[in-house]
Amino acid sequence: MPTEEFTHDVTVPAPAARIFAHLAEPESYIGLSPLLVAVRDIVRDGEEIRYVAVERFRILGPLRWDNPIRVTMTFPEPQRRIVSEVRSPGNVRLTATVELTPKDGGTHVAETVRVTYPKLLRPLVIGQATKVQRHRLAELARRMTVS
Predict the structure, then answer these.
(1) Whole-prediction pTM
(2) How many CB atoms sit inside 10 A of residue 86's CB?
(3) Bridge-partner residues for 68, per DSSP?
(4) Between the CA of residue 93 and those of 19, 61, 79, 104, 146, what are the distances in Å?
(5) 100: which strand partners?
(6) Is the distance from CB of 35 to CB of 124 less than 8 angstroms?
(7) What residues form DSSP beta bridges with 73?
(8) What does DSSP say about strands 106-116 and 3-12: parallel, antiparallel, or unpaired?
(9) For the chain, which terminus, N or C, has the lower number of CB atoms within 10 Å?
């Protein structure tokens, strides 16, 4: 299956510890990722958090499709790196690695997404993954600036 990787980044006017604490909570991703409408079945097991995230896709008008995805978050470098492994229906696998680096009184946030998908799903998977990633970083910067 094809695999693609891309990175986007933003500088956020907040300390890395505050950003890390926010991103380490599954509930924080509701609205942070524009498709995510719920998280459930959260299990904290040592240095790992597993949960089900529900993505909602609007199809036509009131029609929608809820896509439950399994997420496993790990913290290989506390306060500096978060890795989220995502298993989605349709044989789509995504790994998002967030790196936090102090910069000019704030934090440089870089997110690298590596996604593996069935060839026929490429336009949908890559289009949504890049759109969601850009939104997530912009919303994170907004949240950390406002609160």
Answers:
(1) 0.88
(2) 19
(3) 54
(4) 25, 29, 25, 35, 33
(5) 109
(6) no
(7) 49, 84
(8) antiparallel
(9) C
